[in-house]
Specification:
The chain is mostly beta strands. It has one domain. The protein is built from one helix and ten strands; from the N terminus they run αββββββββββ. Keywords: Signal.
Length: 114
């Protein structure tokens, strides 16, 4: 509970916005170990939305509510950012697992951090 509250607070980008842990969907595609993934609304994960390397990853056509999955190992984290190339980002989130659907429309990049 404490971990979830901390993670949710760290990702609050705007009033009323933020991510929270979500239960796993059995029909959803698994995010590979070592990656951060963004799920499509149907539960699938497009190859363009699987990120392995540290640094900024610009998003293309990722709008609406999406689930973010952190499957990185070794305590690595991620940030969601309003600007391309990792500008105006949330705090780093290090918790692994799935996060409740989040409105990705204003989000333009995801940054993976060690």
């Amino acid at each position: 509970m404490r971990k979830t509250a901390t993670i949710t607070a760290a990702l609050a980008l705007a009033a009323g916005g933020g991510l929270a842990m979500a239960p796993s969907a059995t029909a959803a595609t698994a995010c590979p170990s070592g990656a951060v993934c963004i799920r499509e609304t149907d539960g699938s994960i497009l190859s363009k939305n699987i990120f392995y390397s540290y640094g900024a990853h610009n998003l293309s056509n990722v709008t609406g509510y999406r689930v973010i999955v952190n499957s990185q190992t070794g305590g690595a984290g991620f940030q969601v950012c309003y600007e391309y190339n990792g500008g105006r980002c949330s705090s780093v989130v290090r918790g692994t697992g799935e996060y409740a659907p989040y409105d990705m429309t204003p989000i333009n990049s995801v940054v993976l951090v060690p």
